[in-house]
């Protein structure tokens, strides 16, 4: 294989990985959006409180953004 072939393979692999990560994040966002009631969110918060901030940072980021989106729609 030439250097060019390796570079193209590397690029394709990188793009596929990024696409997979986006799909996984969208799936996670949909799942978290299903927690709509106050009791749902309290249950989710209780679950996340058993884990470190590093482990839950992405989840908390998504949840906070979704909460802000809900507030903006109702304002």
Structural account:
With 75 residues, the chain is mainly alpha-helical. Helices cover 85% and strands 0% of the residues. The chain has 3 helices and no strands. It has helices spanning 3-33, 38-48, 53-74. α1 (3-33) crosses α3 (53-74). The longest helix has 31 residues, at 3-33. The mean pLDDT is 91.
- What integer value in Å does the Rg equal? 18 Å
Q: What structural class is derived from the secondary structure elements?
A: mainly alpha
Shape: elongated
Question: Low-confidence stretches at least 5 residues in length (pLDDT < 50)?
Answer: none
What are the key terms here?
single chain, 75 residues, mainly alpha, 85% helix
Explain the layout of strands and helices.
Elements (H helix, E strand, L loop, with lengths): L2 H31 L4 H11 L4 H22 L1
Describe the structure concisely.
With 75 residues, this protein is mainly alpha-helical.
């Amino acid at each position: 294989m030439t250097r060019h072939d390796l570079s193209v393979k590397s690029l394709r692999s990188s793009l596929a990985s990024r696409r997979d990560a986006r799909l996984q994040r969208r799936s996670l966002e949909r799942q978290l959006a299903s927690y709509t009631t106050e009791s749902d969110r309290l249950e989710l918060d209780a679950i996340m409180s058993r884990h470190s901030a590093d482990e839950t940072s992405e989840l908390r980021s998504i949840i906070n953004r979704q909460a802000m989106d809900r507030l903006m729609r109702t304002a």
